[in-house]
Amino acid sequence: MKSGKRFVVPVLIILFGITWLLNVLQIIPGVDWIWTVGLAAVGILTLAAGGLNKLTVVIGPFFLAAALSSILRQTGRLALQHEIPILVIVLGVLLLVVQIVKLPMPAILKPDNQ
User: Fold this and answer.
1) 39-60: per-residue pLDDT in tens?
2) Which of 33, 59, 70, 106 is spaced 20 to 30 A from 39 at the CA atom?
3) DSSP secondary structure string, the chain?
4) Which of 67, 69, 60, 66 is nearest to 94 (CA)?
5) Dihedral Cα 6, 9, 13, 15, nearest 10 deg
């Protein structure tokens, strides 16, 4: 088992517990913690299970940014009409970063002959 994959189940359980606790304690009321922590979980688990490559360096941080912007929107600190363009900019920056930084192509995207 790849080293990152062994963390998937424990991280999911921890994130589930955090979500549950945030709901019970009503921390920052009005935030859908299941959705927000779910976005963050996808970002963290992408990096943990996939390692660092051209795909995970885009997907992982993008979902973390989506989780953060979700919290800001749900607490009234960021309007939806600003959230979406900001996330598009973040996606563009991440795509630019993977073109500049030497990262491996994920095995799933490599042609069969490589």
Assistant:
1) 998 999 899 888 999 999 999 9
2) 106
3) --GGGGGHHHHHHHHHHHHHHHHHHT-STT--HHHHHHHHHHHHHHHHHH-SSTTHHHHHHHHHHHHHHHHHHHTTSS-HHHHHHHHHHHHHHHHHHHHHS--PPPGGGS-TT-
4) 60
5) 70
